[in-house]
Amino acid sequence: MKKTNEYIESVFTSSDPLLDEVLTSIRDNGMQQISVPPASGKLLTMLASISGAKRILEIGALGGYSGICLARGMAGGGTLTSLELVDDYANLAKSNLTKAGFGDRVTYMIGPALDSLEKLADRGETFDFFFVDADKENYENYLEACIRIAEKGALIVCDNVLARGTVSDESKAPTQNTGIMKAFNETVSNHPKLESLLIPVGDGLTVSQVK
Ligand code: SAM
């Protein structure tokens, strides 16, 4: 998997100074380097663009790396709503999205994402594209909350579903996310409201379409 991903990154991604600056800003602020890798970011841009996404919801902003990738793919006039627990992270993400030219099209909601999702549902807001990349133990809750506010045909993309390869490779020592992600993948695959596939790019992304 590692070699395959290195190959994909080397052939299908190229230098991106703006995203490199985001990574530098994350490092300079003493934050963990846990943004999506470049190939996953490119896939997010392509999926948003191919699906014509106009109202994107992201769960887990960090420094705005995936937010920029999503915003690059969204349709003209589209908007990104991003849910982030940590105020300082959302501020950095907002500043990076502004540098990328998307400052007026992104809104951050600070606090536990499940609370923000409830607020969005209460307001009757709906979305046509979701990217889930926050605390793994809440993935099943996020999935249900996203389905509740999804438009028909919406895409729900969830990151880290391979748990560093441990969900499929028994020779690797399991991590605390291995069992969580195995169970999550089963839920996604068997969900009556979703048509889904796992794409083994980066740490693995499930891509689901809401029926
Ligand atoms: N999607 C980002 C990217 O690729 O640029 C990386 C997101 S990072 C893996 C996970 C983020 O989720 C962190 O910024 C963390 O603060 C946030 N997070 C963790 N638990 C959360 C929660 N309960 N509600 C909202 N955000 C949460």
UniProtKB/TrEMBL annotation:
It holds the Pfam family Methyltransf_3. PROSITE patterns: SAM_OMT_I. Keywords: Methyltransferase, S-adenosyl-L-methionine, Transferase. GO terms for molecular function: methyltransferase activity. The keyword Transferase applies. One of its GO terms (biological process) is methylation. Transmembrane segments: none annotated. Gene3D superfamilies: Vaccinia Virus protein VP39 (3.40.50.150). Its EC number is 2.1.1.-. This is O-methyltransferase. It comes from Bhargavaea changchunensis.
